[in-house]
Amino acid sequence: MIRWLLVLAVTVASSTVSAESRPSPPPPPPAIAATAKAESVAKAAEHQVARATLSRASLAQRYKDELERIDRLKNQRASWRRDRELRDNLSDSLETANQLSAATRELERAKITLEQARRSYLAAIDAELGAGTTPARAQQLAQTRAQLAPQVNVAPRRIVIPDFDIDPLADPEELDQRAAELRAAEEELGRQIAGLKAQADELDHLAVLRKQHDRAGDLFNRDDDEPHRNTVRPTEGEDGGGRQPNLPPGAPNFENFVPIVLVDVIDASTINSVAAAQRSGDPAQRAAAAHQAHDAVARRLDEVKKRRLEIEGRARQLRGRL
Question: Which DSSP string corresponds to 108-163?
Answer without folding.
Answer: HHHHHHHHHHHHHHHHHHHHHHHH---HHHHHHHHHHHHHHGGGSPPPP----PPP
